[in-house]
Design a protein that fits this description.
The structure is a single chain. The protein is an alpha+beta fold. Strands 2-3-1-4 form a four-stranded antiparallel β-sheet. Strand 2 and strand 3 form a beta hairpin. The longest helix has 12 residues. Helices cover 30% and strands 29% of the residues.
Amino acid sequence: MNISSVVVKCAPEYVAFVLEQLRESNQCEVYAHDELGRIIIILEGDTTEHESEKLRIIQEIPHILSAEMAMAYSESEFSDEEGKLERVDEQLLEHLNADDIDAKDIVYNGHLKDR
């Protein structure tokens, strides 16, 4: 399951119309809006492609000036790849997150292009 928040912008005089169209579209849930024409909606989909299609439909609603994803969460779409990622050593993480370490004391010995 994927969940994303989208910021929709319309002219203030069209807020009521756009809100009605968003609700009738059955593509999203209206979370919040203001009188300036800013509307926050929530999209849900089985895949990122499904969410993208919903966003495209929303962007075509008359009087919407813009509709862009702000945050996205994917529960399991990439879970098959997760086991393939190299894990970072827990001691290294503790060392890097220590409050008493100075950034100039961190020695970098790698290069991403070598991988």
